[in-house]
Amino acid sequence: MKTILIIEDDIVFSRSISNWLVKKGMKTDCVTTLANARKAIGQKEFDLILADLRLPDGNSTSLLKWMNEKQYPIPFLIMTNYGQVENAVTAMQLGAVNYLCKPVQPDKLLALITEIFDKESDKPVFYRGESFKAHEMYRLIEMIAGADISVLLRGDSGTGKEHVAAEIHARSHRKNKPYLAIDCGAISDELAASEFFGHQKGAFTGAESDKIGLLRAADGGTLFLDEVGNLSYKTQMLLLRALQEKRCKPVGSTKEYSFDIRLVAATNENLEKAIEEGRFREDLFHRLNEFTLRIPTLAECREDILPLADFFLKLACAKVHKSFHGFDRLAKAALLEYLWPGNIRELKNVIGRTVLICQEQWISVSDLNLEISLPKKETQWTEEEKERALLLQTLEKTGDNRSKAARLLNISRTTLYEKLKKYHIVD
C-alpha cells in the first residue's frame, strides 16, 4: 500500500483529500507546516509528497531544497493557486514531478498520482554490463557526460537508450536539475506547441489551467527526446526555432521565456535516409547530433546475457513473491543461443513471463519457451554456431538423454560429450 504525505495548512481541505485517497486504497499522513514535514520525512518512509506551495512557515520549494541536500528521493507533487504558476516552475526545477492548480479536481489528482507511481515502478534498474562493448559504452558515457553537448543515441529497440540518457544526465553537472523524457511518437501536431512550450488557461478548448511546457520544465536540466525520428516535419520546425533562440512562448501568451537545457535524443531509425527522403530536417539533425553514441545489441554483449538474466530474475521474483534456485544447464545454454531481436527489453519480458508460469525450483528451457532455430538466412551464423544450436535442439527433444541424443545425431556418446564441452553446454 502506497503512503502519501499531505502538507496542507487548510485542515478541512487536507482531511477531504486524505479521506478520498484512503478510499482509493492509499495510506496518508497529514501535516500543516514545513517543520512537521521535515520531521515526518526523517521518521517514516513515504511514496509521494503532496504539498501546498505556500505554507505558514515558508514556501514548499525550501522543503525540496532540503530534501535534495539530505538525499530524500521522494516524488514531490505541488498544489498551487492560479497565478502562482511561476513558483511551480521553480519547484519543478528543484525536482518536483508535477503540479496541480487549485481547486484540485480529485480525478485529475488520482490520474497524476497513478502516473507518478507507474513511472516509479517502471524506472529502469540496470545491471552494469561487463562485456567489452558495455565497458566501451560506459567509458564514452563518462567522457561525454561532463561536456555540455547534445547527444544522439543510436541503437535498436530494447537496447536501453532511455537508461543511457538517464546515466548521461546523472553524471553531468546538471544532475541536480530536472531530467524529463518524452516519447516523440506520442506528440501530435495539434498538441506539439503545448507539449514543448506550454499554454495559458483558456488558450484552446480543453486548456483548463496553465501548463508549463517541457522546455521550461526541464530548464537547467536535461530533456530526453525518445525516438526523435517520429516527430512530424511541422513539429521539427517548431522545436528547432525554439532551440536556436533558447526562448519559447506558451500558446495563448504574449510573453516569451528563456530556457537552458541539454538535449539527449534517441532513434532506431536511419535519420540520414530520412533526411534524403525529406522526412527529417538536416539542420535539426546537426543540432541534436553533436556527439553520436551507438548502443550495442544484446547479441553483441553475449557475456552479459546470463548475469542480466539472473538480475531480472531477482527483480521479477520480488514483484510476485516467488523464489527459484536459478536456471538449469539447458536453460542457460538456450539463453546464450537465442539471438534476442528485442534485446534487453525482450530478455526482461521473457524472464518476467517465465517467473509467472514456472512451477519448479529450477527454470528449464521449456519454461523459457524460446524458439532456438536456425535463422532464415543461414549465413548469419557460422558452422560452429549452427552445430551448437543443433546440439541444443536435440538435447531438448530427448529430455537431456545423451544416449538418445547421440543416436539421433549418429555420433558416439563420447563424441557428443566432447562437443558439449567444446560449446560450453556442460562444464
UniProtKB/TrEMBL annotation:
<dbReference type="InterPro" id="IPR011006">
    <property type="entry name" value="CheY-like_superfamily"/>
</dbReference>
<dbReference type="InterPro" id="IPR003593">
    <property type="entry name" value="AAA+_ATPase"/>
</dbReference>
<feature type="domain" description="Response regulatory">
    <location>
        <begin position="3"/>
        <end position="117"/>
    </location>
</feature>
<dbReference type="GO" id="GO:0005524">
    <property type="term" value="F:ATP binding"/>
</dbReference>
<dbReference type="Pfam" id="PF25601">
    <property type="entry name" value="AAA_lid_14"/>
</dbReference>
<keyword id="KW-0597">Phosphoprotein</keyword>
<dbReference type="InterPro" id="IPR002078">
    <property type="entry name" value="Sigma_54_int"/>
</dbReference>
<dbReference type="InterPro" id="IPR025944">
    <property type="entry name" value="Sigma_54_int_dom_CS"/>
</dbReference>
<dbReference type="Pfam" id="PF00158">
    <property type="entry name" value="Sigma54_activat"/>
</dbReference>
<dbReference type="InterPro" id="IPR025662">
    <property type="entry name" value="Sigma_54_int_dom_ATP-bd_1"/>
</dbReference>
<dbReference type="Pfam" id="PF02954">
    <property type="entry name" value="HTH_8"/>
</dbReference>
<keyword id="KW-0804">Transcription</keyword>
<dbReference type="InterPro" id="IPR009057">
    <property type="entry name" value="Homeodomain-like_sf"/>
</dbReference>
<dbReference type="GO" id="GO:0000160">
    <property type="term" value="P:phosphorelay signal transduction system"/>
</dbReference>
<keyword id="KW-0547">Nucleotide-binding</keyword>
<dbReference type="InterPro" id="IPR058031">
    <property type="entry name" value="AAA_lid_NorR"/>
</dbReference>
<keyword id="KW-0805">Transcription regulation</keyword>
<keyword id="KW-0067">ATP-binding</keyword>
<feature type="modified residue" description="4-aspartylphosphate">
    <location>
        <position position="52"/>
    </location>
</feature>
<dbReference type="InterPro" id="IPR027417">
    <property type="entry name" value="P-loop_NTPase"/>
</dbReference>
<keyword id="KW-0238">DNA-binding</keyword>
<dbReference type="InterPro" id="IPR001789">
    <property type="entry name" value="Sig_transdc_resp-reg_receiver"/>
</dbReference>
<dbReference type="InterPro" id="IPR025943">
    <property type="entry name" value="Sigma_54_int_dom_ATP-bd_2"/>
</dbReference>
<dbReference type="InterPro" id="IPR002197">
    <property type="entry name" value="HTH_Fis"/>
</dbReference>
<dbReference type="GO" id="GO:0006355">
    <property type="term" value="P:regulation of DNA-templated transcription"/>
</dbReference>
<dbReference type="GO" id="GO:0043565">
    <property type="term" value="F:sequence-specific DNA binding"/>
</dbReference>
<protein>
    <submittedName>
        <fullName>Two-component system response regulator HydG</fullName>
    </submittedName>
</protein>
<feature type="domain" description="Sigma-54 factor interaction">
    <location>
        <begin position="127"/>
        <end position="356"/>
    </location>
</feature>
<dbReference type="Pfam" id="PF00072">
    <property type="entry name" value="Response_reg"/>
</dbReference>
